[in-house]
Amino acid sequence: xxxxxxxxxxxxxxxxxxxxxxxxxxxxxxxxxxxxxxxxxxxxxxxxxxxxxxxxxxxxxxxxxxxxxxxxxxxxxxxxxxxxxxxxxxxxxxxxxxxxxxxxxxxxxxxxxxxxxxxxxxxxxxxxxxxxxxxxxxxxxxxxxxxxxxxxxxxxxxxxxxxxxxxxxxxxxxxxxxxxxxxxxxxxxxxxxxxxxxxxxxxxxxxxxxxxxxxxxxxxxxxxxxxxxx
Length: 230
Prior knowledge:
By secondary structure, this protein is α+β, with helices and mostly antiparallel strands. The protein has six helices and eleven strands. It is about 25% helix and about 25% strand. A five-stranded mixed sheet has the order 7-8-9-11-10. A four-stranded antiparallel sheet has the order 1-3-6-4, with helices on one face. A hairpin with a 2-residue loop joins strand 8 and strand 9. Helix 3 crosses helix 6 (about 185-200). It is globular. The mean pLDDT is about 95.
């Protein structure tokens, strides 16, 4: 398994000293490396020093993810952002998804803010032991056998709800998110789905995500798509 997936941690305490120009340039370079889940959805990623929101965390820097409003936009942002959540710790930086945070100012009429991520030098241990993860058992969130499901199980989610389900069959992984009538919870479930899908992608030799017409039905969950290659 990807070593960062095995030990990653959401950092909520930071050294508030701003990062130097060289480090911020490195972060921008990492931003340019990310790949979307859906190539047909426009998005942008920017760095700011201030955000606002109910669950905001004090940090020296934040990443703002924006997207046009299209089906799959939230899953796309989750997939994109999780790449940075795994890349930045390799450079010694802590990160944390901020579900209810937004930029202080917003003037873009097309690309609306979806979610933010704090980052900076950690003010607490950057990593944790595999045994320290508080996650549901695989039997609660999946059926079938596939080594990549453990990586999906370790993915972060809003309020650690882990509102996903996976069905593995014939080398495929069908992905589902828990249904919710509340708009905020539904948005977060979609973002979380994209995060988990990236963890599967990171463990796949080849990766393709498609919508299958005859995917199995999971009661209480909405079908998001299928990882079709191992």
